[in-house]
Structures are given as C-alpha cells and as structure tokens.
Amino acid sequence: MRNDLLGLLLVLAATVAVSPRVRAQSTDHTAGMEAAAPADLSGIWIRLRDPSHASINLDFGKAISPMTQWGETKFKAANSVYRSSSPSTVLSDPIFNCQPPGVPRIYLLNFPVQIVQVPGQVIMLFEFDHFIRRIFTDGRPHDKDAGPLWMGDTIGKWDGDTLVADTTSFNDKTTLDREGYPHSSAMHLVERIRRTEPDKMVIDLTLDDPKAYTKPWSAELNFQLRPDWKIMEHICEDNTDFIDFNKKSTRSPKK
User: CA-CA to 218 of 20 to 30 Å: which in 52, 114, 246, 252?
Assistant: First the structure.
C-alpha cells in the first residue's frame, strides 16, 4: 500500500512539473497562429452591385475569357435555359432545386456573408442556404483525398494584410454565374481578399480552367460592411409552392 501511495505521489509530481511547459507550448502555438493573421476581415458583408454590365449583377460580365470547344458546348446548353424570360425555364436553374451554387457563384446571389476569424481558419458563413466555407490558414496542404466538392477544398495564407485563398477539388456540377458559364473539375480559383477601408472589402479572384477557357481570367468583387445586419434563416426546401405561384402570377388573364 505504501509503495502504491509513493508511486502515485511521484506521478502527480511529474504531472505538475510538466503541465506548465505543456501549457506554455500550447499557448505559444495558439499565439503564433493568431499573430499570423495581420488583418481583420470579420463582420457581415454584402456585395455591391456593378451597374456597368448588368442591372441585377448576377454575372461576371465581360471579365470571362473565351471558352474552349468543351466550354462552348456546356455554355450553350445552360445559357439557352438561364437567359429565358419565361418563369418555367428560369426556374430550371439548379439552385432553384436546392443544388449548391458553388464558388464563386455564391458571391453573386445578393445574400450577405459573415466572416469569422479563429486561429488557423477564416470561416465564411453564407446566409444563402447557410453554406459554410472554411479557409484553413494553419499551413496545411490541399487535401488530395477530398474528392470533387461543391465548394472545393480551400487553404489560405496571408500576404501582408491580404488573405490569399487557394481552392481546388471542385466538381463540375455548378456554373460560375446566372448566365450559365461552365467550369470543369480542373478549375483552380485564387482569391485575394483584403479590407480596403474600415467598411469596405475587395475580393480579386483569378480563375484558371484550361478545359473550359482558353486562358485564365480575373474579376473584382466589392463588398460593404453591414454592422447592423445579422445572418437570417434561409432554408432551401421543396420548391413546388414557389413554382406554382409563378405559374399563377404569369398566367394570361381569362377573356
């Protein structure tokens, strides 16, 4: 019994001696991760519309590069539906059937996004269908086993006060915007995200997809801080009621 008690005391003594060091290492690691974020992007942001190319601004305008033959074929199949003014065809856009919009299209949907920064991650909380996007800034490489994803696999690093987000591993089931511009699973998206003023943020994105486009292309998205807003509930569910409403509202009046 005495030997057991002595052994227990020795273990406790060793634990007390080691614990401060372990805690210090843990604190130093966390502090280092926090120090690696030289800029604060947190807040609720809404994209500002660019009136230079579209009244409702659901597309990238003239920024998109010429398409390859593969891209043209995919575009014509989607564009013939998306650009129609008929509600019955407009609603065939997959996002009206709860399909994820993907990145970068989710930025164009005119719903706010809340950015939250924690050690090792910058998290985007989208109001649209409550999608969550994690940009890992802890130095990890891309997850090669992630497989084709709707939002892709994103890692990031800081370049001064700019967050550089690098995304790969997309599937090819989404379009880039409301016009129906396609992308393949080979798409590589790089975003440079920076706060230009206390209440303004810019995302400069560059998209490289040699299967769909003849050369990389870039676009700029501008955001306004909305400190008095909050992320509201937005749930995508069976769209039958909405489609029925559109049919009734667009029906020709009886003579």
Answer: 114
Q: Are residues 20 and 127 located together in one domain of the fold?
A: no
- Taking a C-beta distance cutoff of 8 angstroms, is the pair 53, 61 a contact? yes
Which tokens sit at 43? 């807040």
Whether this prediction's pTM lies above 0.70 is answered by yes
- For every residue of 2-63, DSSP letters joined together read HHHHHHHHHHHHHHHHHHHHHHHHHHHHHHHHHHT--S---EEEEEPP-TTT-SS--S-GGG
Q: What is the mean pLDDT of each run of 10 residues along the chain (255 residues)?
A: 47 42 40 63 92 60 90 86 58 80 94 97 96 97 93 97 98 90 96 97 97 96 96 77 53 55
Q: Are 29 and 92 in the same domain?
A: no
Residue ranges making up the domain that contains 173: 43-249
**31 and 48 fall within a common domain:** no
